[in-house]
Predict the 3D structure of the following.
Amino acid sequence: MLIPRQPVPALQVDTLDHGRHELAADAPERFSLVVFYRGLHCPICAKYLLELGRLLPDFEKRGVKVIAVSSDGAERAREMAAKVNAPALRFGYGLTLANAREWGLYLSTSRGKTSIGIDEPALFSEPGVFIVRPDGTLYYGAVQTMPFARPHFDELLAAIDFAISKDYPRAASTPGRFEPGI
């Protein structure tokens, strides 16, 4: 289980157009946003990533580096990137299922072809969204057991604005201790 203000697991994946991605070396100004998606077979993921691509400049303005990651191989990741058509969005691929489990992601088995006629992989990870501090500790995390009911990116932007403006939770707070103040 991941714990806020504690280190997140390692994340190292190849990307389509941005070389090898290593979360520990990402060096964001404020946060890294890691969006795990199910894969090419998921039409809800495509819609979700379209929204992420549209809002990518807003995240970047706030000092947030963004990556979308799946266990798909390069070819399927390239097809998803073409659907999303957001050239600046980093698409990571080849996430191992063991690494997905380290992040607390749920795994699902294939049910064959999806509603859009694409075969699901035999085993794949379900969605998760994580905001990670530059020091590699968890700030925010959400995981789903199904493709729907994910965090809205506009709400995450508002939360990031609040966190930045209020230094929330306060930087000097004790790790692992909840500090009220909203």
In short: Residues 43-61 form the longest helix (19 residues).
